[in-house]
Structure formats: C-alpha cells, structure tokens
UniProtKB/TrEMBL annotation:
InterPro entries: Cbl-indep_Met_Synth_N, Cobalamin-indep_Met_synthase, Met_Synth_C/arc, UROD/MetE-like_sf. Binds 1 zinc ion per subunit. CDD domains: CIMS_C_terminal_like (cd03311), CIMS_N_terminal_like (cd03312). Zn(2+) binds at H678, C680, E702, C763. NCBIfam families: met_syn_B12ind (TIGR01371), PRK05222.1 (NF003556). The gene is metE. It catalyses: 5-methyltetrahydropteroyltri-L-glutamate + L-homocysteine = tetrahydropteroyltri-L-glutamate + L-methionine. Residues 6-91, 120-345 form the Cobalamin-independent methionine synthase MetE N-terminal domain. Coiled coil: none annotated. Gene3D superfamilies: 3.20.20.210. This is 5-methyltetrahydropteroyltriglutamate--homocysteine methyltransferase.
Amino acid sequence: MHPILTHNLGFPRIGADRELKRALEAYWRGDLSKEALEDTGRTLRRRHWQQQADAGLSWIPTGDFAWYDQVLTLSATLGNVPVRHRAEARNTGAEPGSHSECGCSEPIDAPEAPEGPCRQVDLDTLFRMARGRAPTGAASSACEMTKWFDTNYHYLVPEFHPDQTFELSYRQIIDETREAIALGHQVKPVILGPLSYLWLGKEKADNFDRLSLLEALLPAYQQLLDALADAGAKWVQIDEPILVLDLPAAWQQAFEPTYHRLQNRAVKLLLATYFGALGENLSTAVQLPVAGLHIDAVRAPEQLLNVVDRLPVHKVLSVGIIDGRNIWRTDLRAARETLAELAERLGERLWLAPSCSLLHVPVDLKREQALEPELKSWLAFALQKVDEVVALEQLLAPEPAPSALAALEASDQSVRSRRESRRVHNPAVQERLSAISPTDSQRQSRFAQRSAKQQALLQLPEFPTTTIGSFPQTDDIRQARRAYKQGQLSEVEYRNRMRQAIADAIVRQEQLGLDVLVHGEAERNDMVEYFGEQLDGYAFTQFGWVQSYGSRCVKPPIIYGDVARPRAMTTQWARYAQSLSRRPVKGMLTGPITMLFWSFVRNDQPRSVTARQIALALRDEVKDLETSGIQIIQIDEPALREGLPLKRKDWGEYLDWAVEAFRLSASGVNDETQIHTHMCYSEFNDIIDAIAALDADVITIETSRSQGELLDAFEQFSYPNDIGPGVYDIHSPNVPPVEAMVTLMEQAAQRLPKERLWVNPDCGLKTRGWVETEAALANMVSAARRLRERS
Ligand code: GLN
Ligand code: ZN
C-alpha cells in the first residue's frame, strides 16, 4: 500500500506568545521599524513551517501567514485596493476631499471612481485598508470587517465596483512560498478561490452584481497560479468554503466554468471546503475540473461515503478528520476505523488533514502549566493536531511504527478517562436536566399582566432611561483586579476597591438622573470569563489565544463538563449596589447562549444540552438575585444571532433550543421581577419571531448604525414587549447631541407604542472614559425629559 499523504490547511499565525500581536502593535505605535516587524513575521513563519515539517506532514501550507487577515492579503494580491487607501492617491495629494489644508485628522473618504488595479501595494497599504491608517499619513475610513462564516475570526470585506479590473499586484504569497521552498520544505500554497472571494465581498455601487466581476477576476487568479507554479508549487489549495452554504443558482452554476478557466498545466488544484456539508452543492463540487477535493468530515461526517461514491476516479480526496474548530483530542481509534475503509477504496488518492485551517485553535497545549493533568490529556491544540494527522497516517500502514501505536494507546486512554471522569459527569446536573418540565420555561403570567405588576412597583416615568451594564473600566479598576488575581491584594482590600467603584458609579448615575441604575461591572474582566470562572465544568487556559481580528486575540474558556453553580455569583455586588440607592439597580448576567458560543464547547453531547445546563445554573442566580431584593435582572445575549447555523434549514432547530435555554434561565421569577435582555450586532429581521419568543420584559438593542431597518422588523412583527433601541453608538467617543437622540426616539415612537419605549445607549460603556460617558448620558437624560414634555 502507498503511504497516505498528509497536509494542513493553515496554521495559526499569531505565535505561541502572541509575538505577531506585539510586533504589529509596536509598529503601529511607531515603536518598531518595518524591518523589525518583517523579521518577526519571518521568524514565526520559519518556526511554524519547521514544526509542521518536524511533525512529519507531507505538505505544509504557505499563504496562511497574514499581517492582518488572509482575505485582505488576497485583495492586495489581486490589486483590489480601495482608491482611498492607495499610496498613489496620497503621494500626489490629488485626493478629492483631502484635509491637507485644515490639517485635521477627520477620516477622509475619497469618492470611489471605477478603478483599475492598484499597482503600488506594500505593508502600509494593508494597514490603511485594515485600520484606516498606517503608522504615518492621513486617516481614511477602514474597510468593513465581518465574521468569517460561523467562527469568531473576522475578515476584511473586499469592496467591489462595477468596472473594476484586477491584476497580480502584491507578491507576499508567492514570496513566502519561495521562502519556504528555499528552506527545503514541501509546500502547498493556500488561497481563497474566486467565487468565495466575490461572495464574501460587498458591492460599493448600486445596481450591479459582484458576480459580474468574475470574468475580470479570473485572469488575475490565472496570473497568481502561474506565479505560484513558477515559485515551485506543485499543488495549490484553493478554498471555496461557500460550497457549504445555500447558494443562489447563478453562483452555483458559476463554479464549473470558473474552474475550467483555472485549469492550469503547471499546478494541480485541491479545492477545499469546510465548516459543513456540501449538501446541494455536492454534485457541483465533485465534478469540478480540479485534481482534488477536501471535505470536512468532522462537522459533516455523514457526507463522507456519499462523496467517495460520486468522486471521479482520478481525483484525490482530502479528508478533514481532525477537528480544526475545537480543542479536543481526536479519538484515533474511531478515526482509523472511518478511514480504513476509505483507504482501501481510494488507495493513494486518500489524503489526510485537519477539517479546516488551524487558525481557530491555540498553538501549543504543551505550554499550559496550570491545567488539571486529566483535563489536559483530553485536549489538542494546533501542534498536537498536526501530530494527530501524522499518527493517523501511520496507523493506517500495514505495520504501524511503535510511536504510532503509542499515540493510539494514549488516545484510547484519554477517551476512556473522559467518558468516565467525575469531572465531566455530574449526576445531580443530569437528574435536574431530566426533570425539566415545559412550564419551567414559562413565566407565571403573560407580558401584559406582568408589565402592569412591575410598573405598579417600579413607578418608572415614560421613556425610562438606563444603560447596558458596564461603566468605564478605569486604570484603577483594572489594576485592582490584576493585583487581586496575582495575590498582591487581599480579598478584603479587593472587595473594598470594587465597592468603591460601584459606589462611584451609583453616585454618578443618580446625579445624572438615570431611572434604572447598574452596578457597572467593575469586577468583570470579561462577560463570559467572569461567570465561567465561578461555574463547575468550565476551565481556563494560560496561553490559549486565538486570533479574532488583526492583532486582537481572545482566550475562550473550555466547557468540558456538566455545568453547575456551586454558589451565588453576583448577589453580593448587586445587593451592595442596591443598598446605595432608592432607584432600582439592575442585576446583570450573561445568558446561556453567549456563555456557550464564546467558549470551546463539549463535543461529547449536543450543544443544546450544554446550553440547558448553563441555563439552569443561571436560573438559580436569577432567583437568588430576586431573593436579594433585585427587581430588575438583565440577561445579555449578544451571541444569539451569531449562533445561527450556516444553512437555513438548520435555523429552526437551533432557534428552538436557544430560545428555550434563555427562557429557562429567566422564567423562575415572580411576575413582579422584570427581565431585560440585551443584544448587539443587530440585523434581526430574519429572526424577529425568535426574539419575541424570548419573552423578555424589556430588550435593549444596538441600533445606532441601522435604526430604521431594525425598527422595521419590530414594527412589522408588532413586537409586543418593551424595547430600548440604542440612541447612540458607544464605539465612538463623540458626545451625541440631545436633539439627535430626541429625533431617533420620535421616529421610534411613530412605529412602536411609545409606552413601550426605553432610552439607552446601544451597548456597554466599559471601553469609554468617564468624561465622554457622563456628557453623553447627561444629554441622553435631557433627551428623555424633552420626550416626556412633548408627549
Ligand atoms: N452588560 C454588558 C456590558 O455592558 C453587555 C456587553 C455586550 O453586549 N457585549 O458590557
Ligand atoms: Zn452590546
């Protein structure tokens, strides 16, 4: 039997110590030279290539390194640089709308002309596109950023114009491929395919369809493929992840002619799909004129045999068998079983790889010093996943090497220990879960009755004012939290410092005249971490960083076991805050869906079950808050929308369990207790019925950017409960004028009953300073007063 080929779809670029983050930020501040930044990049690439080669992979990826984002790199490569970010436009000073006369640093937006490709791309061009500015030079508005499929990674959205042309304009991917080959590596460059590239971008002019740019785009891809062949690549991995989405017919039909055009004598193409099943696009994908197809066998194991049956006999099938999206160790025995049959049928046409790029997992588990050894034995980060790919290949050999057998043994051991561990399985939690009844997720009465009882108690004015929860996290607050964590501040001292911050926030809110107060969340570093640290079943890593965007990384907690709440989590702070004021102070919790999606989740039970466990833990907290005299409790669910599955047919099922989990957490209280929820990243039109089904008494929403659209959804649905459409954007330090907020609310009052409206900013204020916060809230309170006078 021939050896099976192993490869990787991409490696995390940020570095085990977040070296790239540090270097980038230093460069942007002007503290690091371009040469030193480039040096850091080179060192990281070399290290990662070497590590993957040492592990024994047949092919290692190039083109996966990026200074900010791989989609951005591709835009530059294709010469697709918005006019406002081009060096040419800057150097000539000819940019229309330039502020050169006044010298102010307001963003400048040059009108976008139909453009030819940009010919002068360098590192700073990338940073202007990504951040609106390079270390030096004028500011312009950055490209939009959005989520990469259903991950927490954000890419820079390509901008498209009707008569645009493309041309190979930036050679980073090619140069890095040469660089790796010169170091003696066997490489396979990775690029995003033309249809996914167009799909993920946005039209910047009316009345045109970006798919019409395909003709213009393909020659640039052809140039790029030729250049990669020229650099020495034999195979190129071309990613078309949109093949796992529901595609309009025109897009689906575009694949076949596109890949005919890209057939290239010099390089073979491996067409990569991931994050789900090919579904309706399966026949399209298997028939494309490419040399190989990669599929995700972790998210969609059910498609494996179907694909094998329909794959033409000359094609390679790369099976993504190691989970690139999660941190669990692979069950090598089960994986070997799945693959053995395929290996027999496909012979050397079978390749092995992780399911998707390893960009979405941390770099190296070995770095972790503080994890429980048992828990640690269940995990695998990027480097360990590469080892797993190689071990599987060896295990498929007729006589596996001793090291492979040892890996199998260790994997068996880990599977057993995880299946049986008391850390994972908590009988009390499971008992409680099986005792849940339908009434547990229902409030005692309908909204109309609850609302009357709440109002009788709370006596709030029309257009009540409130904030979303967090107040500025001052240096003092951060320093106290850090010192406490490091053991330099005693429990008592820490509590005093936090109490001071709470008292300060309460005084300021009373002076501002807000109607419903918050304690300010000073004790929280992060809205998920704070609760995860207090719940059983959650673990935290020291170095488990994953790139979110650019230099920004997140360190998601790991949900590994049944979730339970050993003791109350927020009541002491809430009670203290409430003791300082006669006005109601909201209790503040993070909801079950957000607790789930902003973590690495269990793969040994459905997410719906984990969500329900978290919901029960929160339900106890909600009740404890009520018993502590808290009359209003907010359960934040900013992640509800981002949890939506990639295919529409799966939405209903997800929304059912997600809504149920929220309701389970919220419904244990009396009618008199008012439940709020908060959501950001609005775009609710298509899930408005699910939002209404949450049955929160009040929902506050981020709307400052698309007020009209959002209210449309609520109006058309005749949304029944109270709403606080955010009246100003907290992402900007600008102080919103009173009249602007009055106007927004008056528009809202034309579409929704004014008795149902609240006045609030659009999200938490933790990233702001106090000066602008107080000024903005003073205006907001004035706006509410004016509304009351006029109504
Ligand atoms: N209560 C949180 C805060 O104010 C909500 C944050 C969020 O919506 N992302 O910070
Ligand atoms: Zn928010």
